[in-house]
Amino acid sequence: MFTVIDPKYQCFYTFPISHFMELIKSRAYFGLSKQDQNRATFVLLEDEEKGVCGGALLLKKRLSGFPHEVANTLSDFVSPKDYVWKCMVFLSFEKDSPLCTTNEGDHFCQIFYRNLYNTLVEFGKKEGTGFLCVSLDSVEHLCTEEIICWPYIFELKPQNSSDGFFHGILSLTGSQYEAYQKNWKGALFSVQK
């Protein structure tokens, strides 16, 4: 479902990355320099048939690159000199997408975010990290608040954030991860009955 694009392979995926970045910029989503974009790992889904584009952008940042509320929360566990993975998530439907006009859209979103989370867990294993610092704009946060129920250890709502974005520390391992997996399996089992 998702294509994971490491920085050294971005040259082979210029169109999907450009498309993703255009959509992010159209929503005034986080200032991102060209240098940061070139150092980022992309986790992308592009389905032209369904008119959807989405995924995540992952970038190593120092604590000083996060809002002070998030940096303060992490400062007990992470040295200011260490890098932490920042994850920006985005999903967009084209105006004429069949997912916008049917009930399939909600189901697609559930599957999208579930599979994205699993891909992020695999990324975390590969990179040796048990968490990501997720940032969402207010539109993305509203769209996902009820759908994804990801296992956040810490959440900072847009109305309480100094930059107006949602920020969360997303668990990729441990008890929160296990509870999330168990709850998701339970939800799938009840739907299949």
Quote the distance from N terminus to C terminus: 26 Å
Order of helices and strands: EHHEEHEHEHEEH
How much β-strand is present in the residues?
Answer: 25-35%
- The secondary-structure class comes to alpha+beta
Indicate the low-confidence ranges by residue numbers.
Answer: 189-193
Fraction of helical residues? 25-40%
Radius of gyration: 16 Å
Q: Overall pLDDT, averaged?
A: 85
Count of individual beta strands: 7
Q: Looking across the biggest beta sheet, what order are the strands in?
A: 1-2-3-4-5-7-6
Main pleated-sheet profile = 7 strands, mixed
User: In DSSP terms, counting alpha (H) and pi (I) runs of 4 or more, how many helices?
Assistant: 6
Coarse morphology:
globular
